[in-house]
Protein backbone atom coordinates (compact mmCIF):
# COMPACT_ATOMS: atom_id res chain seq x y z
CA UNK A 1 0.00 0.00 0.00
CA UNK A 2 1.46 3.34 -0.91
CA UNK A 3 1.76 5.86 1.87
CA UNK A 4 1.78 3.21 4.60
CA UNK A 5 4.75 3.53 6.93
CA UNK A 6 6.79 0.45 7.65
CA UNK A 7 6.55 -0.54 11.30
CA UNK A 8 9.45 -1.87 13.32
CA UNK A 9 8.01 -5.28 14.12
CA UNK A 10 9.41 -7.48 16.89
CA UNK A 11 11.73 -4.89 18.40
CA UNK A 12 11.55 -4.01 22.07
CA UNK A 13 10.30 -0.65 23.21
CA UNK A 14 13.10 1.50 24.51
CA UNK A 15 12.86 3.16 27.88
CA UNK A 16 12.40 6.51 26.14
CA UNK A 17 9.54 5.19 24.00
CA UNK A 18 7.74 3.68 26.98
CA UNK A 19 8.06 7.00 28.82
CA UNK A 20 6.63 8.80 25.79
CA UNK A 21 3.73 6.37 25.59
CA UNK A 22 2.91 6.74 29.28
CA UNK A 23 3.18 10.52 29.07
CA UNK A 24 0.96 10.83 26.01
CA UNK A 25 -1.65 8.42 27.36
CA UNK A 26 -1.65 10.30 30.68
CA UNK A 27 -2.26 13.51 28.75
CA UNK A 28 -5.36 11.91 27.24
CA UNK A 29 -4.13 10.96 23.76
CA UNK A 30 -5.82 8.05 22.01
CA UNK A 31 -3.98 4.79 21.49
CA UNK A 32 -4.07 5.24 17.72
CA UNK A 33 -2.62 8.75 17.92
CA UNK A 34 0.17 7.64 20.30
CA UNK A 35 1.00 4.66 18.06
CA UNK A 36 1.33 6.94 15.06
CA UNK A 37 3.49 9.39 16.97
CA UNK A 38 6.00 6.82 18.29
CA UNK A 39 5.78 4.68 15.13
CA UNK A 40 4.70 1.52 16.95
CA UNK A 41 1.70 -0.74 16.68
CA UNK A 42 -1.44 0.01 18.61
CA UNK A 43 -1.09 -3.35 20.33
CA UNK A 44 2.37 -2.43 21.65
CA UNK A 45 1.07 0.90 22.92
CA UNK A 46 -1.94 -0.76 24.54
CA UNK A 47 0.23 -3.41 26.24
CA UNK A 48 2.64 -0.77 27.55
CA UNK A 49 -0.20 1.35 28.91
CA UNK A 50 -1.94 -1.65 30.51
CA UNK A 51 1.27 -2.67 32.25
CA UNK A 52 1.68 0.88 33.53
CA UNK A 53 -1.86 1.07 34.89
CA UNK A 54 -1.75 -2.44 36.36
CA UNK A 55 1.72 -2.46 37.94
CA UNK A 56 2.69 1.19 38.05
CA UNK A 57 5.94 0.43 36.27
CA UNK A 58 7.16 0.14 32.73
CA UNK A 59 10.16 -2.06 33.45
CA UNK A 60 10.57 -5.25 31.46
CA UNK A 61 10.17 -8.52 33.26
CA UNK A 62 13.17 -10.80 33.52
CA UNK A 63 13.07 -13.95 31.47
CA UNK A 64 12.08 -17.15 33.14
CA UNK A 65 14.86 -19.36 31.81
CA UNK A 66 15.75 -22.79 33.09
CA UNK A 67 16.20 -23.37 36.79
CA UNK A 68 19.74 -23.92 38.02
CA UNK A 69 20.62 -27.52 38.84
CA UNK A 70 23.44 -26.59 41.21
CA UNK A 71 23.48 -24.51 44.34
CA UNK A 72 25.84 -21.60 45.02
CA UNK A 73 27.91 -23.84 47.27
CA UNK A 74 28.30 -26.42 44.49
CA UNK A 75 29.24 -23.63 42.06
CA UNK A 76 31.99 -22.50 44.44
CA UNK A 77 33.24 -26.09 44.74
CA UNK A 78 33.42 -26.36 40.94
CA UNK A 79 35.49 -23.17 40.74
CA UNK A 80 37.71 -24.29 43.61
CA UNK A 81 38.38 -27.65 41.90
CA UNK A 82 39.46 -25.82 38.75
CA UNK A 83 41.72 -23.49 40.75
CA UNK A 84 43.43 -26.38 42.57
CA UNK A 85 44.18 -28.26 39.35
CA UNK A 86 43.79 -26.12 36.20
CA UNK A 87 44.21 -29.13 33.88
CA UNK A 88 41.45 -31.27 35.38
CA UNK A 89 38.69 -32.46 33.04
CA UNK A 90 35.06 -31.42 33.36
CA UNK A 91 33.95 -34.99 33.96
CA UNK A 92 36.42 -35.26 36.86
CA UNK A 93 35.12 -32.03 38.38
CA UNK A 94 31.57 -33.31 38.05
CA UNK A 95 32.44 -36.58 39.78
CA UNK A 96 34.37 -34.82 42.58
CA UNK A 97 31.65 -32.28 43.29
CA UNK A 98 28.91 -34.90 43.05
CA UNK A 99 26.35 -32.78 41.24
CA UNK A 100 24.32 -34.07 38.29
CA UNK A 101 24.86 -31.35 35.68
CA UNK A 102 26.07 -31.45 32.10
CA UNK A 103 29.71 -30.61 31.29
CA UNK A 104 28.64 -27.43 29.46
CA UNK A 105 27.22 -26.11 32.73
CA UNK A 106 30.58 -26.65 34.41
CA UNK A 107 32.25 -24.68 31.62
CA UNK A 108 29.67 -21.92 32.07
CA UNK A 109 30.33 -21.76 35.83
CA UNK A 110 34.06 -21.48 35.18
CA UNK A 111 33.50 -18.76 32.57
CA UNK A 112 31.34 -16.83 35.06
CA UNK A 113 34.31 -16.95 37.45
CA UNK A 114 36.61 -15.61 34.66
CA UNK A 115 38.54 -18.86 34.41
CA UNK A 116 39.77 -19.98 31.03
CA UNK A 117 40.37 -23.57 30.00
CA UNK A 118 43.89 -24.85 30.46
CA UNK A 119 44.48 -28.14 28.73
CA UNK A 120 47.70 -30.13 29.08
CA UNK A 121 49.87 -30.54 26.00
CA UNK A 122 49.69 -33.89 24.26
CA UNK A 123 53.35 -33.58 23.46
CA UNK A 124 56.02 -31.10 24.31
CA UNK A 125 56.38 -28.37 21.67
CA UNK A 126 59.85 -29.03 20.28
CA UNK A 127 61.68 -26.74 17.90
CA UNK A 128 63.42 -28.26 14.87
TrEMBL record:
Query: Residues annotated as region Disordered?
Result: 55-74
Q: Where is the composition biased (Polar residues)?
A: 55-68
State the protein's name.
Transposable element Tcb1 transposase
Originating organism = Trichonephila clavipes
| Top-level division of the source organism's lineage | Eukaryota
